[in-house]
């Protein structure tokens, strides 16, 4: 490395003796960072020169490099006035911090050893002898320390500064550098080449530069020793109060990885892909509706709105009585997704739940792809292009696109790759307790993002662990002990944080035991081989609808070209244990998704499937079994990444190109079209203008006609638009069936009046209403504590209006775009 700094923001002072310094490599370089040190620098240079000269040949040839950090006083002149050719000056045009000054000074140094000392000489130069002795013993760095036995202290700092320094030291030792008690003492001796390499890749400009450099030494495996020294506080410290706040910030920056340009491009492309997928709603979320979301967009916006409302009014965030009057909604037993709805509360309050939901799904999908990319790059393939392709498939596979219509809890999965990565760290057995605690925190957060996704991820990891144990038993045996110990610690941490919410979910008001999704909830073999509905080139809505529950539950549809490609990858890379394990995981997940009884293609025969042994287990009994095929998405993405990585290393150009063409042809049918959207129905002015307030008193509910339910939940949108100012019966959420039956159902079991109104809406035929019917209606309205009934314009609104007229005993009134029956009239 040259002794002349050529960076744009630094230079050696023209005319100084430094420009004519001998090109010979000195034995010792002394680097002194300086900022406005005109009072202290002169005596320091005198002491250094005198001590090094008096030692004769002890230190060999030497140089002193003063790194001026944009001083505004006479600091530079003090150096340039001296005529010693061994004294050099490098400067920065502006003040940027001690770290930047040291980067300049160390970069300009040439010595075989480099001593870094502060300009105040709080540690006398005579202590260099101790450091050099330790360095000669084979260490790459000798760090002067005030905290090891043998260190002595002269004048001390102010007690407040002592306290802050002690707290900072604990923070450093706990987060960045282990085994070094005092990283901040400004007297350190390094191997020259190694310290120049460390400073060359450093990023920090502030006081935490010492931590960054020592962390680099530790991670490179270069031994560092602490040496006791004598230290005395010198007045005139350059540490300002704000520096104590910037120091933790720099430690955080130190812990965060530096993205390469290719990584930033990958993240930008993932975001662009997510925006393109949601383009129909993303640019106007308040007035656009995802057509294939059925009623789920209304439901999710309600979850975001009610969470924000509960937080603002300091109510229990796990419960709401705004739907399902009078029983209410157990939000923890529903997919309220507190992990996003809580942090996005400011967005919900400022711009509405539609914007918050749109941001959550779009940014969450891009973050999920980026998380898979990071995992594959760190654990699977070194090629960024291969990792990008694998991550794109993992996050944008056909079943993920299907769920993107309506289920953020299956789209926002950025914690799942991080959880997998932490489990792999546990297998290494290096920092089991630390990694286990972090894993427990991650799992707890994922509980509030989506419990079913966490359950499926755990099932996928269990399948992989079993397959990898068979493929690589020696590695599995070595990893088993630390992994099991770590999982036990992680479970304890996680349960400590989520035990109360889970108790509320399974034992609180309106909790239920399980959900039964019926016999049509499993995949078929045809569903795995068929192209998805949203495939840009090969999609067929009718065919996909015949093989799935609805457009939001197309949980397979990987297409036969991709499955053939996965088979070819498995055969071609069979010798690699990870390939065998991934292939077995995908095959097992696909098989489980076929349900407890598997229909054999082209026959009428059904055979028992492996899911039959799991279907009755706690938690598993509520899973839509076809969703198990979601496990295949990241696994197929990993196989794809491995294949592309192998192709890029092929010696033959023809092999590379032919293989990549085959890959592209297999993936081409999977490219999704943007999700379908449509203009959103206008909310009646009755709700937007607040006219409803005149008809609903405190403690009463407003009854939409007919009641909101999973198939027709537009009333939830009216409620959120009205600022959640009124409660209503019915709704779209999960709850127990009732009357001692705690089986879960979607929506509220219909009483007599709700069933009557639903029948009229579906048939368009007004019902015969007699005295008994009116009595049933009065009981139901009293049960709902109804203040008014409201009928908005809709299909069959004429028969509905006639039916309610008869039930109430008087005609409704047209108010702000709706028919209203105020139950207070005539009371």
Automatic annotation (TrEMBL):
PANTHER family: DOLICHYL-PHOSPHATE BETA-GLUCOSYLTRANSFERASE, GLYCOSYL TRANSFERASE. Pathway: Protein modification; protein glycosylation. The keyword Transmembrane helix applies. It comes from Streptomyces phaeoluteigriseus. It is a single-pass membrane protein. This is dolichyl-phosphate beta-glucosyltransferase. SUPFAM superfamilies: Nucleotide-diphospho-sugar transferases. It catalyses: a di-trans,poly-cis-dolichyl phosphate + UDP-alpha-D-glucose = a di-trans,poly-cis-dolichyl beta-D-glucosyl phosphate + UDP.
